[in-house]
Amino acid sequence: MALVNIKIEGKSYQVEDNLTVLEACRKCGYNIPSLCSWKKGECSLASCRVCLVEVVGARGLVASCAYPVNEGMEIIISSQKAMEARRNSVELLLSNHEKNCLQCEKNGHCELLEVSKMVGARDKKFVGVQTEATIDEVAPGIIRNTGKCILCGRCIEACKNIQGIGILGFERRGFKTIVAPAENRSFANSPCMQCGQCVLVCPTGALLEHSEIDLVDKAMKDGKFVVCQVAPAVRAAIAEEFGEKIGTNGTKKMIAALRRLGFSRVFDVNFGADLTIMEEGSELIERIKKGGVLPQITSCSPGWMNYMEYFYPEVIPNVSTCKSPHQMQGAITKSYFAKAHNLDPKDIFVVSIMPCTAKKYEKSRKEMEVDGVRDVDAVLTTREVAKMIKRCGINWNKLPEDEDWDQDLLGQYSGAGVIFGVTGGVMEAALRTAYFYLTGKEHEKIAFEAVRGLEGVREASIDISGTTLRVAIASGMKNAKALLEDVKAGKSPYAFIEIMGCPGGCINGGGQPYVKPMFLPNEDDDILDTYRQKRASVLYQEDVNQKVRQSHNNPDIKKIYADFLGHPLSELSEKLLHTHYDSNREKYPLKK
Questions:
Q1: Domain 131-209 maps to which CATH number in 3.40.50.1450, 3.30.70.20, 2.60.40.420, 3.30.930.10?
Q2: At what angle do helices 477-489 and 302-311 cross, to 10 degrees?
Q3: Distances (CA, A) of 282 to 434, 570, 578
Q4: Where are the alpha helices (DSSP H) in 123-269?
Q5: Which of 311, 41, 65, 63 is nearest to 157 (CA)?
Q6: What is the pLDDT of residue 521?
């Protein structure tokens, strides 16, 4: 990559020649505000005009997020002309932005507010044309409020570039322009995955998760036996909500905080992940031995399941019938655990703490119940549970780090369960157990590093006693399309495919803490390229630290099959732990 010589504010620098002015300035220590640009390669249409700077020789001011650097360029950020233009741009955005900032759920994370402070914007400098806002609260996963939208276009680009769907666009014209699905439909009436990647990049409160904190509050007030179960990826990110660096393991403090919130049990969904491997791995082996439909495709990601039903119903026979780990664990809590403690399943309220907005939709699907009892009653994102901790006045920094998960039938888990939270983790966990079942011995290295990595699509060939098992992994639906087209055409060479709806897997789920490029501390300047790796490293390290690293060796898993389920794929397992999918979406009315 070639370097070019540029000047910023009169000082000389050398930067890569493929950068924009905005990227080059940030690399050199200058913080130019921007709202439509999120990170390298993920800018919308230079629409917000908040990053205007002077470039000597250019006609007028330029949008630094879209203007490339070149040899000898001179950039001026602090001229009166540039500063006034940036302030005017923000003031125009504020004029048409719904107020009530104190009540806004994005308060504390609003980039518009931060940028307003940076440029010294004056509220009510301009009077905008206020149009009636669309507030879409129908879908279980995501809420949309056009009154808070600043038309930056980030969500449009995320849906198009990450998932390859593009259900969002600019609707109407002039002052009436909004961002919406076609014809301003609800997300519930659009082919939306509910993945929440649009929520992650939204700089204001225009897109948010559909909060279920009030459901949890009511259950506790009503005296329910409220159980929480936490997904593996949450521990890799929750500390960020309390000012700690990305890549901090928040497990112990999180457990302590959840106990102080009043949950009757604090369980780890890693148990459910181990259970999933037992069922899904057995399903794969049965398909291989009995000539079943291959490749088998994982079913842990509800965003991917939504996408599949909308766009690739032809591959339903390939998809594992296993419920996702938290749904499995919810069903077990209301059967096995309830029976052991003489509890009425209807008195148990299961709260899943997830990195995902699509899980809110998943738990509401009509088939996610057994004998009329819902597997899971509420889903909280990582951000929501952080709000609960903060509102109770719990001081994160003073929480003890010596508390552990409840060890009550569902307490023990393996390292294989932990890595479910990162792309390739489900595949690796399944391979550890499949290898044992097919060979009668453990894999000598335990880890299958060939399936690791954060690339959008990966493939590997695994040797199992002379038999080569070809596998593939994809995260983000745009990346998965080529694999799915081959499956649909009947020419896929793989036996097993893992698909995750979010790039990088659950560590980058739509319910995880926001990563805001402009407001990162200096020591984390590279974080937009590495934050997924840093979160993933938390899970891989916890896997290494576990005494048991294969799902089939988890003592609590052995016990539940011996005492309750019988064996994987048993009749009771099928009833509690498996489900089905259908392209006819009307079969799945949303349940509150």
A1: 3.30.70.20
A2: 50
A3: 8, 11, 13
A4: 154-161, 197-201, 213-221, 232-235, 251-260
A5: 41
A6: 46
Which residues belong to CATH 3.30.70.20 in the chain? 131-209
Task: Say which CATH architecture domain 214-587 belongs to.
Answer: 3-Layer(aba) Sandwich (3.40)
Contacts of 312 (CB under 8 A, 6+ apart): 484, 487, 488
User: What does the alpha-carbon distance between residue 493 and residue 421 come to, in Å, rounded to a whole number?
Assistant: 26
Question: Measuring CA to CA, how many Å separate 233 from each of 64, 164, 236?
Answer: 35, 24, 5
The residues assigned a catalytic role are 280, 283, 300, 320, 359, 362, 367, 506
Tokens 């299958």, located at residue: 448
In the chain, the largest separation of any two C-alpha atoms, in whole Å, equals: 79
Strand bridging mode 225-230 / 348-354: parallel
Q: What is the pLDDT of residue 478?
A: 95
* CB distance 316 to 292 below 8 Å: no
Angle (CA) 199-202-206 rounded to 5° is: 85
Whether 249 and 541 have beta carbons less than 8 Å apart is answered as: yes
The boundaries of every CATH 3.40.950.10 domain in the chain are 214-587
Residue 127: Cβ within 10 Å count: 8
The answer to whether the beta carbons of residues 353 and 229 sit under 8 Å apart is yes
Under CATH, which number does the domain 3-93 receive? 3.10.20.740
* Long-range contacts, stretch 396-401, CB < 8 angstroms, 24+ apart: 396/239, 396/242, 396/253, 396/257, 397/242, 399/252, 399/253, 399/256, 399/257, 400/252, 400/253, 400/256, 401/252, 401/253, 401/256
Retrieve residue 281's tokens: 């791995």
Residue 141: name the closest of 435, 451, 384, 474 by CA: 384
Indicate left, alpha or beta for 488 from its phi (over 0: left) and psi (-120 to 50: alpha).
alpha
Query: Which portions of the chain are predicted below pLDDT 70?
Result: 38-44, 128-130, 517-529, 584-592
pLDDT score of 520: 52
Lookup: tokens for 236: 């890799």
Contact 126, 91 (CB under 8 A): yes
Are 134 and 168 in contact by the 8 Å Cβ rule? The answer is no
What confidence score (pLDDT) does residue 587 get? 38
The 10 Å Cβ neighbour count of residue 157 is: 22
Q: Which two tokens stand for residue 293?
A: 């439909």
**Pure H helices in 440-566:** 477-489, 527-545, 555-560
Give the CA distances from residue 506 to residues 151, 245, 246, 453, 521, in Å, rounded to whole numbers and listed in that order: 28, 18, 15, 14, 24
Share of the chain above pLDDT 70, in %: 95
Cα separation, 331 vs 338, whole angstroms: 10
Contact 468, 493 (CB under 8 A): no
Sign, CA dihedral 532-379-192-184, equals: negative
Reported as type and span, the H/E element at residue 179 is strand 178-181
CB atoms within 10 A of CB 344: 10
CA angle (332 as vertex; 327, 333 as ends), nearest 5: 95
